[in-house]
Design brief:
It is a single chain. The protein is of the alpha/beta class. The protein has helices at 17-27, 35-48, 59-69, 86-93, 139-149, 203-210, 216-220, 240-250, 253-276, 303-315, 331-335, 344-352, 364-379, and strands at 52-56, 77-81, 98-102, 124-127, 152-156, 164-165, 168-169, 176-180, 193-197, 280-281, 289-290, 297-300, 353-355. It has two domains: 17-250, Type I PLP-dependent aspartate aminotransferase-like (Major domain) (Aspartate Aminotransferase, domain 2), CATH 3.40.640.10; 253-379, Aspartate Aminotransferase, domain 1 (Alpha-Beta Complex), CATH 3.90.1150.10. It is built from 13 helices and 13 strands. A seven-stranded mixed sheet has the order 1-9-8-5-4-2-3, with helices on both faces. Helix 4 (86-93) links the parallel strand 2 (77-81) and strand 3. The radius of gyration is 21 Å and the shape is globular.
């Protein structure tokens, strides 16, 4: 794999990660639901005001649990954006549901809430808003639509941990929320995630599904004298070693967010001249949102410019990346009958977006080099 002087992402240590890993090993319990798993869950429940948070081995796993909890099946339809990672869709595709993709807004790149009602049918089971870049979807409108039509709301807040919509943390607004702690996210443990259970009726079953379909959690709490197979489920628990690493990160959430905010602000201010010259567009954050500065992207005038800039930066030793290939235009999406032109905003913006290097240890001189390289690209 090619090495870059300025990579797109780099994992980092911010506190007692290695010390806590040693503690986990010495405790004699490194499997799931050990000491640090409980610490992480309790910390997040307290900080975010959540009813129940359960660590999982990925956000993908959390989404799969959500689909099972909502009893999604072949007769159901799920409304979601096409501009998202494949896991958002796959969790429901695995349950054989019909995926109904809607377009995104031109400002936030989030699901366009004005497009939801027109695709609701008698088969619609849930709405799955994705909080892109740690910027909230228009949740008041989405929740109103859901309540009026008796639908579940499952928040994909993979990128939105510790970000807010108005006075509520992302992931705590819908019936269920999902988080990611993948190494590219704000708070990391290599691979990891969590399910946020906000609907009381799902709490007990979420524990069972996550624990291979058994009532093992009840057994460890002394609520039953033996545990057994009681429901469908799978092994969705992360190792307590990963939870130990994550706990050190969660202890320093504000420090991490503040650092990322500074990185975000530097890029934003430094690139304003190119915005004024009409060369590119910068991220938009509504006044109703408190972002966690998850990522920094620029939007170029067309796909050819985006690709040329990406290549130019790579020649300079800088790795920038783009995403997403719209899911409705993927081979699987096309097999469902989707074609070009159905989601014009998604198709246009996904072709023009470029993500810049963005991670906790990124130095200001490295950011300056990224910015100078972008400026030199437009001067050549």
């Amino acid at each position: 794999m090619r090495k870059f002087r300025i990579p797109f992402n780099r994992p980092f240590l911010v506190g007692k990660e290695l010390y806590y890993i040693a503690q986990s090993v010495l405790s004699g319990h490194t499997a799931g639901d050990g000491l640090f798993t409980g610490k992480c869950q309790t910390l997040m429940e307290k900080e975010f005001g959540a009813k129940k948070i359960l660590l999982t081995h990925s956000c993908t796993a959390a989404l799969e649990i959500a689909a099972i909890l909502c009893q999604v099946g072949s007769e159901d339809e799920i409304i979601l954006p096409s501009f998202t990672f494949v896991s958002t869709a796959n969790a429901f595709h695995l349950r054989t549901a019909k995926l109904v993709f809607v377009d995104i807004r031109t400002d936030t790149l989030n699901m366009d809430e004005t497009k939801i009602e027109e695709v609701i049918t008698e088969h619609t089971k849930a709405i799955v808003p994705v909080h892109y870049a740690g910027v909230a979807c228009e949740m008041d409108t989405i929740m109103d639509i859901a309540h009026q039509n008796d639908l579940y709301v499952i928040e994909d807040a993979a990128q939105g941990v510790n970000a807010k919509y108005k006075d509520k943390f992302l992931g705590t607004i819908g019936d269920i929320g999902t988080y990611s702690f993948h190494e590219t996210k704000n708070f990391i443990c290599g691979e990891g995630g969590a399910i946020v259970v906000n609907n009381d009726k799902f709490v007990e079953r979420a524990e069972i599904i996550r624990e291979k379909g058994t009532d093992r959690s009840k057994f460890f709490r002394g609520e039953v004298n033996k545990y057994t197979w009681v429901d469908i489920g799978s092994s969705y628990l992360p190792s307590d070693i990963l939870a130990a690493f994550l706990y050190a990160q969660l202890e320093n959430m504000e420090q991490i967010n503040n650092r990322r905010a500074k990185l975000f602000d530097y890029y934003y201010k430094a690139l304003i001249p190119l915005v004024n010259d009409g060369m590119l567009r910068l991220p938009y954050v509504s006044s109703e949102c408190k972002t966690n500065s998850h990522l920094f992207y620029i939007i170029l005038k067309d796909e050819n410019t985006r690709n040329a800039l990406l290549d130019y930066l790579q020649l300079k030793g800088i790795l920038a990346v783009f995403h997403y290939i719209p899911l409705h235009l993927s081979p699987v999406g096309r097999s469902m009958g989707y074609t070009n032109g159905q989601l014009p905003v998604t198709e246009s913006l996904s072709n023009c977006l470029l993500r810049l290097p963005f991670y906790y240890d990124l130095k200001q001189e490295e950011q300056a080099e990224v910015v100078d390289s972008i400026k030199s690209f437009f001067k050549k």
